[in-house]
Specification:
Blueprint: H1 2-7, E1 16-18, H2 26-31, E2 37-39, H3 46-49, E3 56-60, E4 66-71, H4 80-95
Length: 96
Amino acid sequence: MAAELAEMGVELQLASINKIDAESGISSLTADMNLPVVQDTDELGVWAEWDVVWRDVVLVDADNRYVATYNLTEHNLSDADNYETLKGMFVDLATD
């Protein structure tokens, strides 16, 4: 999807935020994807502040303000409608 968005001229920064107490799995997480990974901490509290659950895609604006959440467990991206919905959310975010 990132390549499709880039071809459309949509500029986004994507990153994964690893939850607190999951640090031991970060090496396998980074081995399986091409996204930068940030480790959440008690000081940052990103998962808590954004009320994140496993497999959430959290969209934030250029000022890191929360915009929306799209959960990939509930909305499997192998379903074309779900894929297009998330892609549309990214496009909307980038063009606002």
